Task: structure prediction
Amino acid sequence: MSGTSGTVTAVSSNGEYSFTKSNRDSIRLLAGLGVEGDVHAGVTVKHRSRVAQDPTQLNLRQVHLIHEELFGEVAEQGFEVGAGQLGENVTTAGIDLLGLPTGTLLRIGAEAVVEVTGLRNPCLQIDAFQDGLLKQVVGRDEDGTIVRKAGIMSVVRVGGEIRPGDTITAELPQGPHRPLERV
Result:
């Protein structure tokens, strides 16, 4: 993974609260809301833990993207994970999602544009899905800094239909780049 462009390998959504999301032939992104018919779509937060804290918070987690290269990485440690199983809406290949700065615009397919808001902050549900997996997607580097690898979150700026095989191109923001933080 090194580029600022890549490919959509899977799209997923779920209309009910569940850890995993079903793979689809396509999903439609709705500007300012998220994935049409997905439980996490909306202007304000929809993730249960965030709703409990403050239901009026803006939803900075409308669309979750994850790099399929992570699946190979965790497979080396004995975990089997497929597209949609970690709750992501868009599974990618070839683009360095975790290396993008905050505010990057991702052009997906013919029309859709999402703005990167930050890193997914994985929770204990990952261990409920597969015991020990959380340690594989959240760890620490040599300096003791927390490293989150479970994908990035974004908001929809321009709606549109996306499907496996679509191209993703990153448009980096102007000015100094701010590294991704958890959202």
Notes: The mean pLDDT is 94. Residues 69-75 form the longest helix (7 residues). Helices lie at 48-53, 69-75, 125-129, 133-137.
